[in-house]
Amino acid sequence: MLFFIEVALSGLMAGVMYSLVALGFVLIFKASGIFNFAQGVMALFAALTLVGLMEKFGMPVWLAIIGTIAVMIALAWLIERLMLRHLVNQEPIILFMATIGLAYVLEGMGDIMWGSDVKVLDIGIPQGAWDWLWDQGIYIEKLEMFAAATAAIMVIVLAIFFQKTRIGRALRAVADDHQAALSVGISLHTIWVVVWSVSGIVALVAGIMWGSKSGVQFSLSLIALKALPVLILGGFTSVPGAIIGGMIIGVGEKLAEVYFGPMVGGAIENWFAYMLALAFLLFRPQGLFGEKIIERV
Amino acid sequence: MSERNLGEVILAVDNISLSFGVMKVLDDISFDIRRGEIRSIIGPNGAGKSSMLNVINGFYHPQQGSITFKGETRKQMAPHRAASHGIARTFQNIALFKGMSTLDNIMTGRNLKMKTNLFWQALHIGPARAEELENREAAEKVIDFLDIQAIRKKPVGKLPYGLQKRVELGRALAAEPDLLLLDEPMAGMNSEEKEDMCRFILDVNSEFGTTIALIEHDMGVVMDLSDRVLVLDYGKQLADGEPDEVRANQAVIDAYLGVPHEEG
Fold this sequence. Notes:
The complex is a heterodimer of chains A (297) and B (264).
Chain A: H1 2-32, H2 39-56, H3 61-82, H4 92-114, H5 131-135, H6 142-164, H7 166-176, H8 178-183, H9 188-214, H10 223-234, H11 239-264, H12 268-283
Helix pairs in contact in A: 1-6, 1-7, 1-9, 1-10, 1-11, 2-3, 2-4, 2-9, 3-9, 6-7, 6-9, 7-9, 10-11, 10-12, 11-12
Chain B: E1 9-20, E2 23-34, E3 38-42, H1 49-56, E4 64-69, E5 72-74, H2 79-84, E6 87-89, H3 102-108, H4 118-123, H5 127-146, H6 161-174, E7 179-183, H7 191-208, E8 211-215, H8 219-225, E9 228-233, E10 236-241, H9 243-248, H10 250-257
Helix pairs in contact in B: 3-6, 5-6
């Protein structure tokens, strides 16, 4: 039983790490109906910038984080100026293609600015086993606990932001109906900058957690692939869905690996999430918490 | 209704022409709207009525002509600027935010009245909170006025059509506009709902002094409500005047009945 709890818990924590990435997708999809292919690269880019600012300029952690946030906001502004503004009223597929292009641009920029070697990211997040649980016989990474707590706080803040504030309402309004949003005086340009900035900051948090865990390297941008089944499970438009979807996948794949892996020769962890997503696409395409059937992407 | 004191010209449209490719949608249209009046635009389908409203609030940009709103003359409007200068509107095919509640929809109408910055809003404390409450009060007043308290929390996508039209009017009213554009506010309603909507339009006009421009097909409604009526047909201006004048206008009768008429 103790072993089961340990596996489930560690799965839960790993799942939250997926959720962090999925969250960025949800934000942009919610406010603009765009599936942002570059979300994973944004996480990589943010982590690279953070490491770069700390290493090359010797900034203390807090200053480097503020600097990176500023860079992500500037990036959002540039994306709106150079990309989104020229693609108003285009088909979602065209915007999707544009984000693929964006992914390459960001990847290249990250390389040029900060180099392509694997970097260690240490901003002082506690590492190693969590002692109290270890005494009970359960091994849980402190880093993962930290990530889970951060995710929880982010979700609460975002939920309040979306439900209770003017800009949150404006975001939802823009997602719902462009023309009607314009008619009540919401500026699409501002909203896009805001939403890409917020998802840039979310990408930074994801980049920090993943970077601390496994180093800042190119493969960081590939965690976006793991976020995809999380999105299908939780629903593309739901913030809590991204979190719960991530947890289900994290726990599911760990349990499946440990208990069923030996029967089929292992490696269940690699495909479990995608099979689950496939099943959802067949039976509940809007996901667990999605607002409506997704006809895009 | 005819002998009302109308204010100065709030909106003047001069020689507006709009075409999409070779299709001429509006051809040299000029008219004005006076403060405090209810101004109707009528005409057969495809006459260019909705296009005219879209030009006024900046969705369409005319190739020729100018628009003067509150003394400022422009070649064209931008939707965002139109809204911030006091033009609110509803749409022919209801354009509500379907996933959001009635209250949230009406609160979006308060968007331009709320000024606190992103930082306070993200934290949801301090000035942002006070502002939210203040505007919530204004939204509740609109809800009371339109008698839609019971559906305050319901997602509007699930409401019956007539109520959706009412919520859409509420969102426009929440902006406290100087000029309210209504695109077929009574389309698809039964006679009871129509009567309600008529009453709301008259009340908005008399209680808040809001200037209203509306498009409507129901002639009875138009003639009852309006101070002045503009008639369009195939993008051309057919007649403009008080309801009685328009009703007696030979060109209008011909356009509507499609046959020449014997009597004068």
